[in-house]
Amino acid sequence: MAEGLSVSITRAGPLLVDAAFHVPPGQTMALVGPSGAGKSTILKAIAGLLPTTGTVRVDGQDWQTGPHGLPAWQRRVGLVLQGGGLFPHLDALGNVMIAQATPDRDAALALLAAMQMGGAVIGRRPAQLSGGEQMRVALARALARDPAVLLLDEPFAAVDPPVRRALIALVAGVRQQSAAPMIIVTHDLAEAAGSADTCAFIDQGRIIEQGPAAAVHADPASRLNQWLTGPIGL
């Protein structure tokens, strides 16, 4: 039975992290907060890219068990980094296929088609793709891992508003393709409310407020809204 993602981790410097939360299957949590608050650090810790103590439990399996925990390459994580993080020496199709446990060209092409990528563009390398195209390939690659968890680190930060709207719609489509719990890091509260079920405000490595995204967005007294409108004492 799918239990989703449960996280309770701590990490000493250079950035202190002390965070605990749960994301049920098929739901999305937005992590929002100032630069350097620890949002990306939490994603990398879940993916096994940074050492932490505590638990990262996915559908009942503790990925932190053992001296070093489950290694990153064994964690079924679909990770989308800022800018896409594509391999520059591979074309779009190659970037998707490299994430597959068993290379399957037809399945990779289907994922790219779902991201509205087809024709000659799938044979282009990242340097020949626009920012929006790179992010579409990155989303397809994340799904190619058949992920148990989806982690998106500010996937829309480097694209223009019209492209951003299209990508948000694609992420909504990803939700329909995968029941994996998703965490999306963003600085945009409206974006969080539009793409997430719950929203967590993080500052200095600690989650200090969380709740339904729409409710947090609508509440002028929420600490997240206060942060967006001006300095607050945290």
Largest β-sheet summary: 6 strands, mixed
Q: Estimate the helix proportion, in percent.
A: 25-40%
The CATH topology of the domain at 5-76 and 147-229? Rossmann fold
Structural class: alpha/beta
CATH architecture of the domain at 5-76 and 147-229: 3-Layer(aba) Sandwich
**Beta content:** 15-25%
Total strands: the figure is 10
Average pLDDT for all residues: 85
N- to C-terminal distance? 39 Å
Shape: globular
Whole-angstrom Rg: 17 Å
CATH class of the domain at 5-76 and 147-229: Alpha Beta
What order do the strands of the largest sheet run in, or round the barrel if closed? 6-7-8-3-9-10
Order of helices and strands: EEEHEEEHHHEHEHEEHH
Which homologous superfamily in CATH is the superfamily of the domain at 5-76 and 147-229? Answer: P-loop containing nucleotide triphosphate hydrolases
Number of helices: 8
Low-confidence stretches: none
